[in-house]
Write a structure and sequence with these properties.
By secondary structure, the protein is of the alpha/beta class. It has 15 helices and 20 strands. The strands form 5 sheets. Strands 1, 2, 3, 4, 5, 6, 17 and 18 form an 8-stranded mixed β-sheet that branches. Helix 1 links the parallel strand 1 and strand 2. Helix 1 packs parallel to helix 13 and helix 13 runs parallel beside helix 15. The longest helix has 21 residues. The chain is globular and about 70 Å long. The structure holds 3-acetylpyridine adenine dinucleotide.
Amino acid sequence: MTPRPGVDLLVVGAGFAGLYALHAARTAGLSVRCLEAADGIGGTWYHNRYPGCRCDVESIDYSYSFDPGLQDEWEWSERYATQPEILAYIEHVADRFDLHRDIELGTRVESARFDEAASEWTVRTSGGEAHRAQYVVLATGALSDPVTPDLPGVHDFAGTVLHTAQWPAEEPDLHGKRIGVIGTGSSGIQAVPELAERAAELTVFQRTANYSVPAFNRPLTAEDQERIRAEYPERRAVARRSGGGSPHEAHPRRTAEVSEAERQEAFERTWRTGGVLFSKTFPDQMSDLEANGYARRFFEAKLAGVVEDPRTLDDLTPKDHPIGAKRICTDSGYYAAFNRDHVHLVNLRREPLTRVTPDGVATDRAHYDLDVLVFATGFDALTGTLGRMDVRGPGGATLADAWSDGPLTYLGMHVPGLPNLFLLNGPGSPAVLANMVLTSEQQVDWVVDLVAGVRERGATQVEARADAARAWNEHVAELADRTLFPQADSWYVGANVEGKKRTFMLYAGGLGTYTRVCDQVRDEGYPGLVLT
Ligand code: N01
């Protein structure tokens, strides 16, 4: 097929990051096209439609900050927005900034080849089309490659099989059904209370007990909206400087330095703030096991106050990792759901799953009859989607080669051997450790500035130096080693995907520090990058 006329910049993915890349590049005067595999925009928020799906970052923070008009006109209805509301917001943004005209839906990128002489990429799609662009931005999402375990017998199941991240657009009728859920990460924990409302019987198959903190969600009132508008500029400034991209700061002292009463008060305060923010109560909570133990005991006391059955309580109590080393889940009634007579917990550590049968799930002790089986089994995070694309630089160097020993990036955005290609929220960047919307804005702005810088210098190509990428990877690993993150078998380290190299894939220095590092690189004329 004849290649389409080339553009300056091609964006792959129309989620939060890709849409802002399209808008920012266009505003900077570049010609842009955006390809999206799904039949609608929204990325994560297009695909994850399971009942109970919400964001675990407050809605007023998990929204674009680049346009004050947009920020002031949009009113979130709740502290934590539901998936439909976030998707409506994304559609609103696309309409407001006329983004749809440059987006092609239902277009999956399969390969990309760089032609050094022409300084351009040719990107081929599932429809057989070829697109040419000087620059390519891969905004394909950190959690966009769902994993379904290949359980024995799973293809024989006669009922309905669903995955939380591939939920049908038309809500399946689950009322009065016997539903089984495999997986108790954020997705499973959010879905369980909602599924419990619909199911005749709900059976939750738990392999590893997880930490979940209530969201304390509530509607936002007219007074809230007024206060938010007044606070927004300062709120955003604090969020950008912070570690997690939200305007919350840890207690000024270390956990053991304060009295027991002050410690309890501090934990209670962040507990009531809701969800993942609990891991930010004290500055050493995620780096010191003893400090973490205080938080863990506080959590256990809260859990004991909710779950009535002692055996269920014991099964739900995490035992194998520090609190926060896997992302803390944010729930609305997860633990209380197990007090209901029709909700059952199966501890797969005690009775391992042996097979899926046509009628349900068998463990080595029992058979659980099911009409519906829901996989809430997560994602091949950060590298899964990128690894599925056949990306080749000059001389045929592939992304797969460059990453055969684990992902290698410079600043999480550049891969040596792949010029003029940028990752958004890639491995080696803060990505999912911070508010993804603000991290996306920061990275997109940096990339758009870089492209302008390349042009100002009369260059046509930009590529990371291999030694700079290795040094960045070492720095990322050193930062991770100062934390408790590597101590859990999580998707952060790739432990949930068989054969994946175990390495903590994210920049743990925080969004504020990361932004300063990136800005310094820019101000110093991009050492670490080669412009030709
Ligand atoms: O996936 P997960 P997720 N047999 O990987 C279990 C974001 N997110 O989709 O721990 C039995 O966390 C697995 O068990 P184990 C958020 O960043 C955010 O829930 O490996 N069980 C685990 O319990 C989050 O961290 C929100 O032993 C099996 C579960 O499946 C990330 O997405 C909402 C199994 C997977 O948990 C991923 O969350 C949703 C098997 N063979 C997601 N294989 C918000 O709130 C896997 N499991 C914003």
